[in-house]
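The material for today's practical consists of a large collection of protein records. Getting from the letters to the tokens is the skill we practise here. To make this concrete, we reproduce a full record directly below:
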Amino acid sequence: MLSGGSIRVSGVVLSLALGGLVSTTRGLAQERMFSGAEAYERFMGRWSRQLAPLFAAFAGVGERETILDVGCGTGALAAVVAQTNPSVSVTGIDPAEAYVAYARARHGGGRVRFEVGDAQRLQFPAATFDRTVALLVLNFIPDRAKALDEMIRVTRPGGLVAGAVWDYGDGMQMLRVFWDEAVATDPSAAPRDERHMALSRPGELGALWRRRGLANVSEQAISMPMRFSAFDDYWLPFLDQQGPAGDYVATLGDDTRERLRLRLRARLLGDGPDGPIGMTARAWVVRGVVP
């Protein structure tokens, strides 16, 4: 329990007075979805690691810069930035204590450090960092405008703020295939479909960046391959209850879950034997300069 009648769930502060039961329920759901670092690595972390160097190149990290990684998760982006530019200093913050512990154990030390923190209330003085970046997290933050304002505040004038969100509606095929078959199996799943995620459609990130006053805003798509060694390599991580898709699977009875599994297998492999599965993933990325 925090001061002012608030609680911290998944590291996000929710006001009981303002948010009531709806906010509390949403917070508990996020705590469930983002609770296991090893499970997250199997489900999404491996793809975050693949996207991280492409996003870092887009963000243009330079030598001897100070970088803030907002929503650092298990440390994929911070690790890539530090390895690529050994002279930079990177601070990663994430609301999930389990993720921060995982990142510290594997990537912390020297010029890289990780802290538990809330993107909506960054605990840093103004103009602390040269660049502030957020990889695959902004759509999960309750008050995205406030989080971006905080990212701008802690970035020096002339510095850069960049973000990335999966194209959940179409280009992130791993999840698009899943939700297409989930809704076909269980039409009541439609409201959970991640195609409804904020900031996941073209132009939305750029529009947010411009509304909050950033200059020289540039948005584009980054695509990358996804390769699964076999069907179970695709399916089993959904059973670990990570992310909205895993959270949905956890609600299913045995019969519905098996019907979904069979539909997905048929969609990805047809009538053929098990084997490698190739997909692509697209993310929308944006950057802008602090005036």
